[in-house]
Amino acid sequence: MFHQLLTEDDTKCLKGIKNSVNDPDGKLSNWSFNNNSAGFICNLVGVACWTEREDRLLSLQLRDMKLSGQLPQSLQYCQSLQTLDLSGNRLSGTVPAQICSWLPYLVTLDLSSNDLSGSIPSELSKCVYINNLVLSNNRLSGSISEQLSGLLRLKRFSVANNDLKGAIPLSFENNSKVDFAGNSGLCGSPLGKCGNLSRKSWKIIIAAGVSGAVFSILLGFGYFWCCGRKTKSHPQAR
After folding, report:
1. Bridge partner list, 61
2. pTM here?
3. Same structural domain for residues 74 and 186?
């Protein structure tokens, strides 16, 4: 019974994808759901299963199909998916912040070469099994969240050719420059220094400024305290 419910979820996922995206070339035309035989969804274009006898999705690769629309919310029913490749299409909208909750076992997520906008969700840090996160060639904006540094299995991270800005988290300093190129507002390793000073220099300057401000405040309190004591010690004659 439990297996049947999982199979129904995967079928629901694929149905939702087909119904929510525009498919001008009919690449998904063979996605028919009238067949109830075991493993039928494993023969659909772009679909791979764990085994041929089991309708449990392992991989969904629909790259270069000219698909348009937003990332389908029905992906939340493909929970066993490990690879999602929708690169080279015309998908728009934002990267769903819930995608790691929808697909908790993702190893590869490739959304490159689409028309996605908005920020890179910090919630992508919840994709704890991810090895490859490719978001290059979109219109993503904002900064790269420090929380993505927590992706300990990440081997490839590419955000090239977007509209990102700010400092690249230190955990990516050994990555290839190519994976961050094409973002005029990004700085820091591996692209180089932020402005005329390195990130370390900026931290030293900021720390020094904060320390100086604290010292000035304490000095001011000390001065007023001393003045108050002198006033009490030498009251004015009446």
Report:
1. 85
2. 0.79
3. yes
